[in-house]
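Appendix B, Record 12. Input sequence as logged:
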Amino acid sequence: MKRVLLILALLPLSCVLPSDRNRGNPGEAEALARLQMERVVKERETARLRAELAQLREKLQARERAERERRQAEEKAKEKARLDARFAEVLDKLGEMGEGMQEKLRGELGAQLQKVQEAFAESRRLLVQGFEKKVQGFEKKVQGFDQKLGGLDAKLEQLDARFGGLGRRLEALERAFQKEKAWGNKREKEPWKAELRELSVSMAKGRAAATQERKQFEQGLLQKIERLEAQTQKLEKNLEQRFKEIHERTAPAPQVDLEAKLRSALEPLQDRIRRSEALGKRRVEDLDLKVTALGRAVDSLVEAVRALRAQAARKGRASRERGTTVPRKNGKNETMPSKAGALPSKPPKGGKVPQGTKASKSPKPSKTGPKVPGVRGPDPKSPAPIRRRKAGLPSFGEGDSFFERPEYWVPSLLLLLLLFVLLGRRPRTLPGEGRDWDAPKAPARPGDRRMEANEGEALAPLPRPGRADSPGSPSPMHIALRILPEELAPQGEEAVRAFLASESCVLVRPEPRVDRRRDGSLSLRFYVPGNLPAHRRRELRERCQSLAMGEMSFPSN
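Logged structural output:
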């Protein structure tokens, strides 16, 4: 390789031609010819060396390519081995998880199957017990009919014995009559013979009537017995049919069908339980909001009452500063100016001086409040309202009533009205709950499917709405919506976000939430003021649906 590079370096020096001025010299011509020959040889050698160099380069490139391919193959083999090991590990984990899930599902299905079998056994036992009770009741009825038939047989025997005795008596009378006739008794007819004939005629009529009555009774009894037999046969057929149905229902079905039936039977119950839990949570939240508003109303009313009481106390102090109130003889109040050192102009009857003056030797504490110098104290014999006003306590006047003082009855009336409004509000219900729970449903539409999808959305924990600005303002209302993946447009999520951010009737706190779920559906949750009309809430819901489905664009032109 070094030799080839040296030849390539000396090659430019060999290409230098002699000058034209030396062509006339023969020695130089030979030297030139020799140089040309050497040049040709060197060119050939250079071409050969270049060819060898190209071959060496190709071999080197081929060797590098082979080395690179070998390394890539080794790396691919290592990566494949690593991936195979990882895939085997994942398969092992998935197998373990699948076995665990199968065991868990098998245990749950076994428990549910055991419960259902126990329920089937219990229902079958109850049905068999009920049918046994019915059969026993029919047996008791048959025994009662047998007893009635036995009583009828006894009555028939009594009738037979009775009519048989009459027949024997008649036969005896006939034999006596024939005997007397045979003896040739030719005496005149006697009264007993007429009586005998009348008796025989009446006995014959009675026997005919008894025979007819007995035949009618026997025919009616036979008809009743036939009807009872027909009813018994019909009941036996019904019992056999019922037992066959029970046997078919309680017969063990294939495992797959039973699991499907169990799942289909448990799904409505689970949905109903979830809806009931969501409705309970919603009602608790509503009750919490009501209690909060009620507490605020009570606080405001207490503050109003305190202000009114302070105002009444200020008025009382002002009236005490202006003068005292003494009762007139006609029952009205009179305000007299107070003077410093004023004393009663006339002592009370009995010549006694009131306590608390200079003439009293042993002053006693007053029951109506402290004595103010220069102000006449209340008279113990004066009415209670006047004594309380003089003592500095708020009270009603003699001519006042409860409804003439609005600072007392207005807060109470407001509190009662607020309680009536809060307790009279109907709780909000979830879709699928309420009066139309068992009502027949129309064919499902895309909107209905979205409402059914909203049922799972209602189970998620919702943010608590902020406190209202004033006690009388209604609580915010929550609107939840879910768009299915097949109905969601490519730019629907951005359009809905922009619309909710720019809409003035959507509350900022709590902020609207637009989330994409795992199944690809879009979940919308936002709050609006409680006094927003129903048609505006419906328009907001429809606008969000149209934007998410791509039927409208935002901003709309």
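The first strand starts at residue 323 and ends at 327.
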